[in-house]
């Protein structure tokens, strides 16, 4: 029996059951090596790590594997060799005749400790939904500090912000031997800042962040309401910006929706280039799935991938999770995943509250009927008042009730641009806020759509 599949499944299940930090602390250092009979060999970085693991986590692993394989699995441990330093050691240098350039090819720069090496610009799939953001990142990677500074990237959860900001960091780190790249989630910036206040190490904190060449801060929306940290970031920003150092920020919402944010900080963050990430169309989602499948060594038929790409329309994280789920199922049971099996396995995912099965045309029908119009009127070119408002209402409701991106919604309204959809949404939002009767009308429409979708 090859235990590797069971090991992978063990990890994926434990990951969802354990605290994220604890999980990655323990299991990122533990590697599957081989198996023979019911013994599994794992490698560890040190004897200390192994003993710690035995004390606390071995039972957890044993139980999980017993549950999955139906038998008791024994463990053997081997120690991994420490990483070989990539820079030439001084000893080697001495043996080189003086004055001669080293003959070894230039060693690649060591992986960046804060950046996930799997996040690269090369494996970032580009579609209409993210091409602008992607090209900003590529330009910056070639000329950090000069191309676009600062770079403000926003988009909903699971749409690829962390991947892109880290890929940018990786590219700069590997292209420039000397540049110091620092990446951190905004939350860590808050925590570090607060503990520097507590421990009276403010100047060390300041030095740390004001002496970098590239500062990448992920999820900046987490700074909302954090007045003191905002102030500190403001000062850090000014110091770095003046020194022409590259700054990049991500946010889960557009700048104008960042509430409880100091105006002057916000105006700094957004004085450079701003780009957003939208949900990819299902065709692009399919390309993403294919790419991930190859890199993970998974095999699923095109028909199955297409089913997943079409039905998971929340974000890319959910898309990947759905693919992993069915492939793990197939591997465990050594069964080929047919469309039927995939459908059965993903039933709960497809029907989940965030994957509402509300179709665009249902919303269009409901809105058209309520205004004595036809769906064709809504999709058409006419721009009379009697049609424009209902059209905007329909766009708003689709964004409200489904996960379709503004680009996709635009397509369903006679190929309109996504900015038209954004404008419509904004307009209806404003109207709802200022006109109580209009709000009631919108609520009624929402109820009608939901009722019809359910029946
Ligand atoms: P966010 O930070 O916006 O919540 P992530 O960057 O964590 O989202 O992305 C979620 C998952 O989707 C990651 O595994 C990431 O690699 C993948 N992903 C997102 N966008 C792309 C893309 N354009 N190409 C390939 N993978 C992507
Ligand atoms: Mg993220």
Layout: helices, strands, pairs:
Blueprint lengths: L3 H14 L2 H8 L3 E6 L2 E6 L2 H10 L1 H12 L4 E6 L10 H6 L35 H12 L8 E5 L5 H15 L5 E5 H13 L3 H9 L3 E5 L8 H16 L3 E6 L11 H7 L3 E5 L4 H15 L5 H10 L4 H18 L5 H7 L1 H5 L8 H11 L4 H5 L5 H17 L4 H6 L6 H17 L1 H19 L1
Parallel strand pairs: 2-3, 4-7, 4-8, 5-6, 6-7
Antiparallel strand pairs: 1-2
Helix pairs in contact: 1-2, 1-4, 6-7, 8-9, 10-11, 12-13, 12-14, 17-19, 17-22, 19-21, 21-22
Strand order of the largest sheet: 5-6-7-4-8
Radius of gyration: 26 Å
Q: Major sheet, described briefly?
A: 5 strands, parallel
CATH hierarchy, class of the largest domain = Alpha Beta
CATH fold-level assignment of the largest domain: Rossmann fold
Descriptive overview:
By secondary structure, the chain is α/β, with parallel strands linked by helices. It folds into four domains: 3-79, GMP Synthetase, Chain A, domain 3, CATH 3.30.300; 131-277, P-loop containing nucleotide triphosphate hydrolases (Rossmann fold, 3-Layer(aba) Sandwich), CATH 3.40.50; 282-346, Helicase, Ruva Protein, domain 3, CATH 1.10.8.60; 355-454, DnaA protein, C-terminal DNA-binding domain (Chromosomal Replication Initiator Protein Dnaa, Chain: A), CATH 1.10.1750. The chain is 55% helix and 10% strand. It contains 22 helices and eight strands. The protein has helices at 4-17, 20-27, 47-56, 58-69, 90-95, 131-142, 161-175, 186-198, 202-210, 227-242, 263-269, 282-296, 302-311, 316-333, 339-345, 347-351, 360-370, 375-379, 385-401, 406-411, 418-434, 436-454; strands at 31-36, 39-44, 74-79, 151-155, 181-185, 214-218, 246-251, 273-277. A hairpin with a 2-residue loop joins strand 1 and strand 2. The longest helix is centred in the last third of the chain and has 19 residues, at 436-454. The model is unreliable at 82-98 (pLDDT under 50). Magnesium ion binds next to helix 7.
